[in-house]
């Protein structure tokens, strides 16, 4: 995408990051791991993974460091999910609340887990990060799949009309598709 800061790209008149944060409008705190634009319309706490560019697991650890211990559930979301909705988050949260699993993620039509579109029991997610860190020695470059090996996850199918909430924008074509769906 030409080196653009993807989360700041607009879809339907709002940045993708703003749209993701709107899907978790009732979350407190809302934490962004990465740069935060000065014109972001909602308050967030921000942090960065160390070293920078450490990947999604290192970013997860950095974000979890800002989550208070008394928070029961944590939504772990990519910042380029412009079609994510509060309803989609509620489905995941209710799935976790009503099951013995440690988290819930969407499973796409091809059977792939959408691991950066999930809701987790915060303590379990923290424990998995700690175990992976102990196993690897550091989190730099660790894959989300490695992290998921330490978690029991419910897979949820999206059966509602319209675009899937986990649709991410990795290409200009994806951005155009999201813009069409957002109309």
From TrEMBL:
The keyword Transferase applies. Residues 1-137 form the MobA-like NTP transferase domain. SUPFAM superfamilies: Nucleotide-diphospho-sugar transferases (SSF53448). One of its GO terms (molecular function) is nucleotidyltransferase activity. Keywords: Transferase. It comes from the Bacteria. Pfam families: NTP_transf_3 (PF12804). PANTHER family: MOLYBDENUM COFACTOR GUANYLYLTRANSFERASE. This is MobA-like NTP transferase domain-containing protein. The lineage of its organism: Bacteria, Bacillati, Actinomycetota, Actinomycetes, Micromonosporales. The keyword Secreted does not apply.
């Amino acid at each position: 995408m030409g080196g653009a800061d993807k989360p700041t790209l607009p879809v339907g008149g709002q940045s993708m990051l703003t749209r993701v944060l709107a899907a978790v409008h009732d979350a407190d705190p809302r934490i962004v791991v990465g740069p935060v634009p000065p014109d972001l319309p909602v308050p967030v706490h921000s942090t960065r993974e160390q070293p920078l560019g450490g990947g999604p697991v290192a970013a997860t650890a950095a974000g979890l460091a800002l989550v208070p211990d008394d928070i029961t559930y944590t939504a772990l979301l990519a910042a380029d999910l412009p079609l994510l909705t509060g309803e989609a988050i509620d489905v995941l949260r209710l799935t976790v609340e009503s099951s013995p699993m440690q988290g819930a993620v969407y499973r796409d039509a091809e059977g792939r887990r959408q691991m950066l579109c999930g809701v987790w029991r915060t303590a379990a997610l923290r424990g998995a990060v700690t175990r992976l860190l102990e196993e690897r020695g550091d989190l730099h470059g660790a894959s989300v799949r490695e992290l998921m090996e330490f978690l029991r996850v419910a897979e949820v199918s999206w059966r509602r009309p319209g675009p899937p909430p986990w649709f991410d924008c990795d290409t200009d074509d994806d951005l155009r598709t999201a813009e069409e769906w957002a109309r």
